[in-house]
What does this fold into?
Amino acid sequence: MKQKVLTSLNTILIVFGIILSILNLVTNAYSEQYIWGTVERVTGILHQDYLARLGRHLYGEYYCVGEPSTCCIVFAN
Amino acid sequence: MKKTILITLSIILVRSGICFPMQIKLIKVIQIPKELLFVSGYFAVLEDGKFLFADIRDKNNQIKIFNENGQLEKSWGKMGPGPEEFDGLGYLDYQTPFLAIADAGKRKIYLFEISGNGEFLKLGEIGAWEMNGPIKIYDKNKLLITGYIVSSDNRGYAVFMRDLLGKDTRYVLPNEYKFGAKSEGEHKRIFEEVRGLSWLSYLEVLEDTAFYISSVRLKVVKIDLKSGRIESFGKTPNNFRPLSMDRRTREALVDPRKGKEIQEKMFDSCSFVSGLFADKEFVGIIYVNREKKIGNEKYFVPYVQLYNHSGKPLHTLPLASFYSEENFIPLFYNRKDRLLYLCSILYKEDAIQYTLYKYKIEP
It folds into this structure.
């Protein structure tokens, strides 16, 4: 009985580990510089270009700018 | 007796600003040829009246100078990794004879001195990876920069000052003052209402005073750069509709499937601050409403609000003829002659049309 419980626990741990590695829920930061900011919707090609060159682009027309709140960009070394 | 009453009445009228209102007259419209300016907007008017633009997309000519008729006179500045090359020029400031210009790709700001014969002498450069908005020259060796920076005591700042050697950073405007709020609680409440569409800000420097305003609230933050004292002023006029979003709208705004629609709704229903300028007599705020319609397209039109330096509102005036597709207006103010230049941005099928509107502010 004891062995069965231990085997089940082991299986659960292994499956949980596999799921975590698939989801990549690991928070590793390899940088000396980071940028905190709010997810902001930015329109206008000039500002989109400017912020993208600053390394603030997240996805689509969304950028990480300004006050710390909802996003963090970590530059990899 | 009659004479005394008349004189007293005149003094009261002049002091209250009811009489002799200021006027802003459109003097000239200068169209920049579409094929000559790719992606730009930020510009300066040099001593000889020529316009200097930064073009973030032009691989061979990042800096361009146009004459008063909109003809290209000079262009240079290759994109690249080299020390004399640029990687995306954007925000700039010109205070005779100095020109500061921000390089987004290299996260640097360069300072040039422009000589009488139009030669650009590079005085130095500073690293500023924290920048994300306007820059201003404070003096020959110091620049004011908007962005987000954290001090050693873990406090966030929206404006900071850095010397040309890059060694000294002074923290100027704590983040909780950026909307002109009176308390941290009020700041947090405003931030919750506007985040997602609130990153734009405007900066102006007049001698030892800096002025800062965010695009979403009509409150000017006045900073004494000597003492560090911060105060705010601003009276919201009837036609300024402040942005305020509930939680559901904010969440929809950052959803790529619904974001554009929400943003368009906000642009139609709210007002945005789009520029700031100052001289010894007054501080001017430009704000826009999207209320002009041509065919199916809607455009932003600007209004100017003038305050005296005590923060008392003097006038609110519309700006004739100007319209733009953007809710920010790149501007340059010539304090000596009270000339205000605004840049309109219109997206045409084949290219972007940049047009400068030159106004004269008259008492």
Helices of chain B lie at 2-16, 184-194, 247-253, 259-269. Chain B touches chain A at residues 39-42, 56-57, 87-88, 90-91, 104-105, 107, 129-132, 148, 150, 156, 158, 175, 178, 191, 195-200, 253-254, 256, 259-260, 263, 326, 328, 345, 352 (CB under 8 Å).
